[in-house]
């Protein structure tokens, strides 16, 4: 399935936009996300985003009338969706023998490639003090992630799947935090393997 279609299913329809308008908005957000990943949140201006996405000033403010903060929030939502989409199809296939090791490998590879620069963390740190709406973006991401792990555990016949899913996600997040701080993925690998003991 096309990644843009998958993302649309995660995000839902942006109210009041035509199909073409939604595609234009998506193009701006995706281009901004790419630029922010490359340079960092504080190094990118609206003019940089306009240039990279071939967007006029009027177009940009049509889709993001409140300016940079509104666009950054949209990028945070986009990055949250990317976290889950990057784990597909392995995340939705959790359950059978072999599926947990395959998912673990995808997760570790994603974060090793990302290294110490996490666009999602940078965006939420930047927006959180003055934009409380960023909190639910993170909460929805983590809740959805945990639910998908929990669904896999149920398919695998694991007892207390909700508790086990919390343990797995906490191990993953702790390992990612250490990777971001040190650049070393060893803790992520060890923590995930321990949390997935009996499944892989």
UniProtKB/TrEMBL annotation:
Pfam families: TetR_C_13_2, TetR_N. InterPro entries: Homeodomain-like_sf, HTH_TetR, Tet_transcr_reg_TetR-rel_C_sf, YxaF_TetR_C. PROSITE patterns: HTH_TETR_2. Keywords: DNA-binding, Transcription, Transcription regulation. Residues 22-82 form the HTH tetR-type domain. GO terms for molecular function: DNA binding. Residues 45-64 bind DNA. The keyword DNA-binding applies. PANTHER family: HTH-TYPE TRANSCRIPTIONAL REGULATOR LMRA, TRANSCRIPTIONAL REGULATORY PROTEIN. This is TetR family transcriptional regulator. The lineage of its organism: Bacteria, Bacillati, Actinomycetota, Actinomycetes, Micromonosporales.
């Amino acid at each position: 399935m096309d990644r843009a279609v998958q993302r649309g299913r995660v995000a839902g329809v942006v109210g009041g936009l035509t199909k073409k308008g939604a595609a234009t908005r998506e193009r701006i957000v995706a281009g901004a996300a790419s630029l922010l990943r490359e340079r960092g949140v504080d190094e990118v201006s609206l003019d940089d985003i306009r240039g990279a996405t071939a967007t006029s000033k009027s177009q940009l403010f049509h889709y993001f009338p409140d300016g940079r903060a509104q666009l950054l929030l949209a990028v945070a939502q986009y990055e949250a969706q990317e976290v889950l989409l990057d784990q597909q199809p392995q995340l939705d296939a959790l359950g059978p023998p072999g599926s947990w090791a395959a998912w673990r490998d995808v997760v570790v590879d994603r974060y090793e490639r990302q290294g110490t620069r996490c666009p999602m963390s940078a965006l939420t740190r930047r927006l959180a003090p003055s934009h409380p709406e960023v909190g639910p973006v993170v909460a929805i991401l983590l809740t959805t992630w945990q639910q998908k792990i929990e669904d896999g555990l149920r398919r695998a016949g694991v007892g207390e799947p909700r508790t086990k899913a919390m343990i797995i996600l906490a191990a993953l997040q702790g390992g990612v935090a250490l990777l971001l701080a040190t650049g070393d993925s060893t803790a992520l690998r060890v923590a995930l393997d321990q949390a997935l003991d009996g499944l892989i």
